[in-house]
Amino acid sequence: MRPEPGEVLHFSEDPGITRFVPHVAATARQPEAYVWAVPAERCPDYWFPRRCPRAMAWTTPATTDDDRERVIGPGCGERVHAIEYGWLEAFLTVRLYAYRFPAERFVPFGEPVPNAVVATEPVEPLGPPEPVGDLLRLHEEAGIQLRLLDNLWPFWDAVTGGSLGWSGIRLRNARPRPASRRPAG
C-alpha cells in the first residue's frame, strides 16, 4: 500500500473522513496545525494500528557492517520493525485505511531528513479510503522483518545508539523500561 506518483497517503482506522482539517495533535511537539501524510518511502512506518508502539530500523549508506549484523541480523534484509507481544492481536486484526492526497498540497516536514509531509490548509482525499489489508503480508511483500519483543526499550536503545536509520512511533504506549540489572558483587 503505497501512493501513486504525485500522491501522498494518510493512514487511519476511520474510513469516514471526507475532509482533513489542520489541527494540533494532543501529542504534537510543535504548535502549528497540520494535516499529516507520508510519501512512499515512509508508508511502512504506518502499517500498524494507530496507537501501537513501534521501533523501526533500516540500513543507510552510513550503516556499518557491525550494526547491520547486530540489529538487522544476517540474511534479514535491510529493514526491521519491532512491536511488543501485547500488540500482536491488534496488529493482526486492525482495519486500517489509506487516504490518497495530491502531493502538491503538502511540504516536507522533519529535520534533518523529512519523515512526513504536511499541509496547512484543509485537504479532501482524491477518493474514498482504501482498505490497507493484511499488515503482516504487507511487511512480508516489502521484505521488512517484523520482530515481536517483550519490551521495546532494549531494542530501541541498540537502534538509536548505532549507525542505522531509525524511527520510533507511539513509544509512550510501550511497556515501561525494564529496571537495569546491577552486577552481582
The major sheet is characterized as:
4 strands, mixed
SSE series:
EEEHEHEEEEHEHE
Broad shape: globular
Number of helices: 4
Task: Provide the low-confidence segments as ranges.
Answer: none
Give the proportion of residues in helices.
10-25%
Distance between the termini: 53 Å
Strand content: 15-25%
The tally of domains stands at: 1
Give the integer mean of the pLDDT values.
Answer: 94
Rg (CA only) = 17 Å
Structural class of the helices, strands and pairings? alpha+beta
Question: What's the layout of helices and strands?
Answer:
Blueprint: E1 7-12, E2 35-37, E3 54-58, H1 65-72, E4 79-84, H2 88-93, E5 97-102, E6 107-109, E7 116-119, E8 130-131, H3 135-142, E9 145-149, H4 153-160, E10 165-169
Parallel strand pairs: 4-9
Antiparallel strand pairs: 1-5, 2-7, 3-4, 3-10, 5-8, 6-7
Features:
single chain, 185 residues, alpha+beta, 4-stranded mixed beta sheet
Give a quick precis of the structure.
This protein is of the alpha+beta class. It contains 4 helices and 10 strands; from the N terminus they run E-E-E-H-E-H-E-E-E-E-H-E-H-E.
Report on this structure.
- 27% of the residues are buried.
- The strands form 3 sheets. This protein has a 4-stranded mixed sheet with strand order 9-4-3-10. Strands 1-5-8 form a 3-stranded antiparallel sheet, with no helix packed on it. Strands 2-7-6 form a 3-stranded antiparallel sheet, with no helix packed on it.
- Strand 6 (107-109) and strand 7 form a beta hairpin.
- It is of the alpha+beta class and 185 residues long.
- The mean pLDDT is 94.
- It has one domain (7-173).
- The longest helix is centred in the middle third of the chain and has 8 residues, at 65-72.
- It has helices spanning 65-72, 88-93, 135-142, 153-160, and strands at 7-12, 35-37, 54-58, 79-84, 97-102, 107-109, 116-119, 130-131, 145-149, 165-169.
- The termini are far apart.
- It has 4 helices and 10 strands, in the order E-E-E-H-E-H-E-E-E-E-H-E-H-E.
